[in-house]
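Hi V.,

Quick status before I head out on leave. The structure for the redesign project is tokenized and pasted below; the design run finished overnight.
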């Protein structure tokens, strides 16, 4: 790959995350929010941005990374994603425990809450599956099927959660970031499907 194209890919990926964060920091809605609530909100934005790098890393879409480095980046981003999610939920709990309880019990009147909870449990399940993969000696085929299935749930839940919220994130940059997350995930799934078909034909 040409250096200019590689730089462009990294620049677009970085801007897709940095621009929504910067625009959210300029939102006038922050003036009426407590510091804990603001931290929780930005942790959610960071989690959305980190989600973009998961399919980009493991799918080999980021140039200049060896397979081993792609796997390490994927694991690192996964850990960071869990941490950001914990901060997001903990901050919301501190500011309004009843709202978090209603969301967890799927009693909240706001549709985005249910999607957020579904995505949260899928993230925790995916992290748990990754942690137990070697101790439980999960077969590679089962591991890939489970991990990819949870990834689809996570992406669908997080994107729906983000798009339904009318908050500090600027609309155009939010939609663009969500679109990139979905596109990268779909591309990864299509590539993996093609590899499976090719492998079966080779057999």
């Amino acid at each position: 790959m040409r250096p200019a194209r590689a730089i462009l890919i990294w620049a677009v990926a970085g801007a897709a995350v940095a621009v929504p964060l910067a625009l959210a920091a300029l939102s006038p809605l922050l003036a009426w929010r407590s510091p804990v609530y603001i931290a929780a909100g930005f942790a959610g934005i960071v989690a959305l941005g980190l989600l973009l790098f998961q399919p980009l890393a493991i799918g080999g879409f980021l140039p200049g990374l060896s397979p081993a480095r792609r796997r390490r980046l994927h694991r690192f981003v996964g850990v960071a994603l869990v941490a950001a999610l914990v901060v997001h939920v903990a901050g919301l709990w501190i500011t309004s425990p009843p709202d978090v309880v209603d969301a967890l019990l799927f009693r909240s009147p706001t549709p985005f809450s249910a999607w957020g909870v579904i995505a949260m449990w899928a993230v925790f399940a995916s992290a748990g599956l990754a942690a137990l993969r070697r101790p439980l000696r999960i077969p590679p085929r089962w591991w890939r099927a489970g991990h990819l299935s949870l990834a689809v749930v996570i992406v669908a839940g997080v994107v729906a959660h983000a798009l339904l919220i009318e908050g500090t994130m600027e609309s155009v940059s939010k939609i663009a970031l969500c679109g990139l997350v979905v596109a990268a995930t779909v591309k990864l799934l299509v590539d993996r499907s093609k590899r499976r078909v090719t492998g079966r034909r080779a057999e």
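Above is the designed sequence. The chain has a mean pLDDT of 92.

G. will cover questions while I'm gone.

Best,
W.
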